[in-house]
């Protein structure tokens, strides 16, 4: 009878150890492991020659010409990074200036995988961990539903 009790305790300890390891791995992959780094590079500016008083005039003009992106229900980290890229890529100096943006296909709005930015470009790098990956997955499912 004592052998059965000992074997049961050993099996229980092994199961607890496996569950503990799985829990630690889940926490690590959800919060810390970087699955992919998405890079967007902002380069040289070109003058659109559209008159402006502030940057918002330039953004409004772009939206009027069909260059808008609907990120209303996007995860916070996507909206925050998009706003930072927009602040860097568009500016007003009497006329609207728009900088070249690499890393996002302007027609399909899909990401291009860049290894690094060229000299003179401003780099925006976003690390995609498990948490962000799940947020993007849920957002994409909701958009396609």
Structural class: alpha+beta
Number of domains: 2
Backbone CA Rg: 24 Å
Percent of residues in beta strands? 15-25%
Average of the residue pLDDT scores: 87
| Shape label | elongated
Q: Major sheet, described briefly?
A: 4 strands, antiparallel
The stretches of 5 or more residues where confidence is low (pLDDT under 50) are none
Q: What share of residues is helical?
A: 40-55%
| Topology pattern, helix = H, strand = E | HEHHEEEH
The tally of strands reads 4
| Terminal Cα span | 58 Å
Give me the number of helical elements: 4
The strand order across the widest sheet is: 2-3-1-4
Topology, pairings included?
Blueprint: H1 2-31, E1 36-51, H2 55-64, H3 76-89, E2 90-92, E3 95-102, E4 122-128, H4 130-144
Antiparallel strand pairs: 1-3, 1-4, 2-3
């Amino acid at each position: 009878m004592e052998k059965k009790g000992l074997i049961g305790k050993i099996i229980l300890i092994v199961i607890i150890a496996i569950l503990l390891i799985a829990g630690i791995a889940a926490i690590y992959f959800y919060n810390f492991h970087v699955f992919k780094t998405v890079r967007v590079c902002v380069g040289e500016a070109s003058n659109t020659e559209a008159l402006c008083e502030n940057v918002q005039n330039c953004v409004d003009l772009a939206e009027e010409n069909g260059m808008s992106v609907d990120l209303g229900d996007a995860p916070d980290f996507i909206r925050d990074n998009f706003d930072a890229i927009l602040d860097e890529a568009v500016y007003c100096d009497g006329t609207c200036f728009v900088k070249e943006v690499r890393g996002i296909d302007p027609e399909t709005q899909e990401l291009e995988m860049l290894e690094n930015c060229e000299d003179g470009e401003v780099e925006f790098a976003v690390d995609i961990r498990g948490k962000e990956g799940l947020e993007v997955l849920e957002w994409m499912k909701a958009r396609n539903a």
